[in-house]
Design brief:
The chain is α/β, with parallel strands linked by helices. It has a single domain, classed as Rossmann fold. Helix 2 links the parallel strand 1 and strand 2.
Length: 175
Amino acid sequence: MADPAAGAMAAAFVRSGDSVAVGPGTRSVVSALISRRDLSNVTVHTESLSLTALFRGQEDRFTVIVPPGLLSPSMTVIPERDHHISVELALIGCSGITADGVQARTELAASAGRRATLSGCRVVAVVMPGSAAPSSESHLISSLDLVDACITSERLPDELVGSLRANGLRLFITS
């Protein structure tokens, strides 16, 4: 999970009326979205029941859409009927970034990230947890050419920063 400062920075990409995909590892982003009182009419697509639960009581500002079969009887969300969602922004948690691409520790996060990046998002922001580096157990989410921005609380090696910026990736490092 990203730190609160990285979550707030990622949430700043969202505008009223946007359709946003949020994946595993974005709890701090969702918390920051909910705390933004200037947002309204935001549609949120997620496969995470724990993230869905955070939106309880926020139905006047957020519509949460989940895939069919994910609903529990106590939830008031709209099941996604069309698996080819259209979103303006995907906020996907990841465990690391290399010159080859963005990685996640779980296949669920990687799967959500791949679907979002292939859905034609105009902007994809990737939120990396502080102190998390890619490991041999990580799964590739996306190549860098599909990622618009990376937000992290972690200081990255200068060589990697140069490579990422040379590939056109916008890099935001919180203090």
